[in-house]
Specification:
The complex is a heterodimer of chains A (539) and B (330). By secondary structure, chain A is mostly helical. Chain A has 22 helices and seven strands. Chain A has a four-stranded parallel β-sheet with strand order 2-1-3-4. The radius of gyration of chain A is 23 Å and the shape is globular. Chain B is mostly helical and 330 residues long. In chain B, a hairpin with a 3-residue loop joins strand 1 and strand 2. The N and C termini of chain B lie far apart (75 Å). The chains are: A mainly alpha (539), B mainly alpha (330). The complex binds iron/sulfur cluster (SF4) (2 copies).
């Protein structure tokens, strides 16, 4: 797919002039490279979702159920009554345009329907037509628009051209979060079976096996064992990585990609080494083998179904509390939804670090702590011996993943960890980090190959900032704490900023960690030579 | 088109008002009936809209966090941009409502050769919005002197301060100047910026034209076609004391002004102008980011089917056993 995509110089010629055609006349061109394929019927069937059938977005006939329009309108009514956010965001936008050029998809495509305000207007116009007095009376003059099949197609196209990153909501004077509108749009599309496969397949797999790729328990165990072996080869240390161990103190939930994907895998190596170094009593779970949750990109109900296993497994194993790995959208779910959906977690204890005694009061109800909070505390309390020189071959920057940044505020913890384990660190420009961070362009389940051109467009603002720090400070590594980033930043940066590397924060921790009994390190966890190999016995 | 139709509508309204003001029988319609009807519509409409919002639950705690969370004691949290206490939320909301904090983040992105995206601060919208809303508030407060007798000292002081820069007689109010300038900018911006023009609806222009019409007729009455202030005050007092009359001296311009105001009031609850009430209810701004510390309850927490551990074990029993992982049921 990548070969078919236009060259970067071509893509960068973005025309921001709006077309002559009125936006209220729906018009979608399903052009190769700019949309994701429809969900295979087996995935809908497995999850018991409506209207499973073979179909593709570029087909003229979407094989919608005969009563699709009533279904959508009834679904809208229902959600308007259940979500204050939805109703309010339909009502109070003043179309001031403050959000317009804040969306990476708009910046990368110039398509006005990618301005958050218009993305939401695609839904609002229908809302006004069927649910407000002026729209019902005056129709188009009242800002209304008939719901037609073309409008539905437009929803599909543009609600899968939004990564639910919430950047727009930072700039809106009313905090209107277009991600919330996109979430409703996708829920409504789900009601008539218009899902994309890249979301529904991981969701179905996750429901069945516990993780996105459908890795079954024995294979999960194999991957973890493999990691343990590799780690021994590299460091001379044999760590323990228990799975489904009852009575462990802590359940550690990771994004499953860490067991098979690169560079995710190096993050797993780093954390396994860290847990060994501090003697943590923990367990992984082959049932709760995925913290990521593609239900978030489908509907609140599917999200809840996929998330339920985490508390269920914590209860079954009898752990005291839960630790969560480096995954962005998993933390959106854990932080903002899990306790409400599947709590109360009153069978767990308020998390306390067994090493430092620090109480994680911020997680006293949900009982789940972010690995960066955990490690930052360890470093601050002097419980880790680290030699940051072992990361001297890296000049790092940090990419804030959307969800931890804008749906949690986890900004300083990963930075503190990074600065402690890595001597050369440079921030990207202020307007592109922290709460104003730019999405990788492939979040919320859009990271598929057939969508390559759109991903490169959406990721352009992020890549642009990376290039800036590469040119200025010689940055050669983008550190991040998100599994989707680790999968999609490499091709993005390869496209716009060739030669750049991507790593998890805990990979760098693992590099720098000085562990008792280890052999002299000559390589990092990737097997690359260190800048200055050390004499035997560590630092 | 979106910009012209509402202009025609406002002009038509103005023409109708001027015409009707000449017909004795219609003066009470303009001066009494329509204002009362509009006022009732406004009140009931606004209450209804707010009730609809309030009745819809906030199922999840979804604040947009714009700063560091409260976590470890040695990391300074962003107490306002990412509040974890009620005080923090109140401060955040106060900054949003009074100073338009989020608009202040305004910036403009520009694609240059390279390709290179550059971002420049752009506070003009923030400035214009702030100038418009604050001057409108002051103008409304100043108008209270028509509706109250005796005029409270505070209102009198406000008017005096507002008219401090004595330009001609009667003095030009500073707020009037700012109001018109800000409205003018907001309209110009909508028309001149291609993206904004593309997305603007008739409703967006209609509100602007109404407000501009109100300001224009007010300024005309004060500075050009001098209105009989005493008669206007009598009309206003009559309306609030529920003994309405339309005195002889009330000119057609005053009746036009009143009709535009009535239109605005009656239109308000059906329009985006409801953002005035909505801003207070926005769940991305008015909730503390304490989702992990305090349980947030969803009243309709949807019952769903899940895939339990037991089902999972049943499905993969052989493989779990072969891998040497523990089983619940041998
Ligand atoms: S910033 Fe908010 S109010 Fe303004 S156009 Fe965007 S969503 Fe609407
Ligand atoms: S949530 Fe992100 S991707 Fe979606 S409209 Fe807003 S800025 Fe764009």
């Amino acid at each position: 797919m990548a070969e078919e995509a236009p060259a970067p110089a071509e893509l960068a010629k973005v025309d921001y002039r709006p077309p002559a055609r009125d936006w209220r006349e729906p018009a979608v061109d399903f052009r190769r490279g700019t949309y994701c394929y429809g969900a295979a019927p087996k995935n809908l069937q497995y999850l018991g979702l409506p209207n499973p059938r073979p179909w593709q977005p570029h087909d003229a006939d979407w094989k919608l159920p005969p009563d699709w329009k009533q279904t959508i309108l009834a679904g809208m009514k229902d959600r308007l009554e259940r979500f204050r956010s939805f109703r309010l965001f339909m009502d109070i936008c003043v179309r001031c345009g403050a959000c317009a050029d804040k969306c990476h998809f708009y910046l990368g495509t110039g398509d006005p329907k990618n301005m958050p305000v218009l993305r939401a207007e695609l839904m609002r116009s229908v809302y006004r037509r069927y649910f407000t007095l002026p729209g019902r009376l005056l129709g188009r003059l009242g800002g209304g628009r008939e719901l037609t099949e073309d409008v539905l197609k437009e929803w599909f196209y543009y609600y899968h051209q939004c990564t639910e990153c919430r950047r727009c909501s930072v700039f809106c004077p009313f905090g209107i979060d277009t991600a919330e509108v996109t979430m409703m749009g996708r829920e409504l599309l789900t009601l008539v079976g218009c899902n994309i496969n890249w979301i529904l397949e991981p969701a179905a797999n996750c429901y069945r096996t516990g993780n996105h790729l459908g890795i079954q328990p024995h294979a999960f165990k194999d991957s973890v064992d493999f990691a343990v072996d590799e780690l021994e080869e590299m460091t001379g240390i044999r760590v323990e990585a228990p799975i489904n161990k009852k009575g462990a103190e802590i359940l550690y939930v990771i994004p499953s990609a860490e067991t098979f994907g690169t560079p995710h895998y190096y993050t797993l190596l780093g954390t396994l080494l860290l847990f060994h170094a501090i003697g943590l009593d923990y367990t992984l779970s082959a049932y709760a083998s995925e913290g990521g949750n593609f239900g978030l990109f489908t509907s609140h109900e599917v999200m809840k179904r996929l998330n339920a296993k985490i508390y269920a497994e914590a209860r079954r194993l009898g752990v005291k509390w839960i630790l969560g790995g480096e995954c962005g959208h998993m933390w959106r779910v854990v932080h903002q939804y899990m306790d409400t959906m599947n709590g109360p977690a009153d069978f767990l204890e308020e998390p306390v670090s067994p090493v430092t005694g620090t109480r994680f009061a911020q997680a006293r109800s949900t009982k789940m702590v972010h690995i960066c909070e955990f490690t930052a505390d360890l470093i601050r309390e002097g419980k880790l011996r680290v030699d940051p020189r072992r990361n001297d071959h890296w000049v790092a920057t940090f990419h804030d993943s959307c969800n931890p940044a804008r749906a949690m505020g986890l900004l300083e913890e990963p930075r503190f960890v990074l600065r402690s384990v890595c001597q050369r660190f440079h921030e990207m420009p202020e307007s592109t980090i922290r709460e104003r961070t730019f999405c990788c362009g492939s979040g919320s389940g859009l990271g598929t190959d057939e969508n390559f051109e759109m991903r490169m467009r959406g990721g352009f603002p992020r890549a642009n900032a990376v290039r800036h720090v590469r040119d200025r400070f010689g940055v050669n590594l983008v550190a991040c704490i998100c599994a989707i980033d680790k999968a999609t930043l490499p091709p993005l940066l390869e496209y716009w900023v060739p030669g750049m590397n991507v790593a998890g924060v805990h990979e760098l921790v693992g590099n720098a960690l000085v562990v008792e009994g280890e052999k002299a390190r000559t390589q990092d966890l990737r097997g690359q030579p260190l800048a200055s190999p050390e004499a035997p016995a560590g630092a | 088109m979106s910009a012209l139709a509402p202009l025609a509508l406002v002009l038509l309204l103005a023409g109708l008002a001027l015409g009707a003001a000449q017909i004795a029988g219609l003066r009470p319609v303009l001066g009494v009936l329509l204002p009362y009807a509009a006022f009732v519509t406004f009140l009931l409409g606004v209450c209804h809209r707010i009730l609809v919002w309030v009745r819809a639950p906030v199922p999840f705690r979804i604040p947009t966090t714009c700063g560091q969370q409260r976590s470890l004691p040695w990391i300074t949290p962003s107490r306002i941009e990412n509040p974890s206490s009620t005080a923090g939320v109140v401060a955040r909301m106060a900054l949003e409502v009074c100073l338009f904090r989020s608009l202040l983040r305004g910036s403009r992105a520009e694609l240059r050769e390279g390709p290179r995206l550059v971002y420049a601060d752009d506070r003009l919208l923030w400035l214009a919005a702030l100038a418009f809303h604050w001057s409108l508030l002051l103008v409304v407060l100043r108008h209270l002197r028509f509706f109250l007798e005796p005029v409270p000292a505070a209102i009198r002081a406000l008017a005096a301060l507002d008219g401090f820069f004595q330009l001609g007689a009667p003095g030009l109010y500073a707020t009037d100047v700012v109001l018109v300038a800000a409205l003018g900018y907001l309209l110009w911006r909508r028309l001149a910026n291609p993206q904004l023009r593309y997305l603007s609806l008739s409703a967006d222009y209609f509100a602007l034209y109404l407000l501009l019409g109100l300001a224009a007729s007010g300024l005309l009455m004060r500075h050009v076609v001098r209105a009989d202030v005493l008669a206007v005050k009598q009309l206003a007092l009559g309306l609030v004391t529920l003994s309405p009359t339309v005195p002889e001296g009330v000119g057609s311009l005053a009746l036009l002004h009143l009709l535009l105001l009535s239109t605005l009031a009656a239109y308000f609850p059906f329009s985006k102008l409801m953002h005035m009430g909505g801003i207070f209810l926005s769940p991305t701004r008015n909730l503390a980011n304490t989702s992990r510390a305090h349980r947030h309850v969803n009243p309709w927490n949807a019952p769903v089917a899940t895939h339990s551990y037991e089902e999972w074990e049943d499905e993969f029993r052989d493989k779990i056993r072969a891998a040497g992982l523990p089983l619940e049921k041998g």
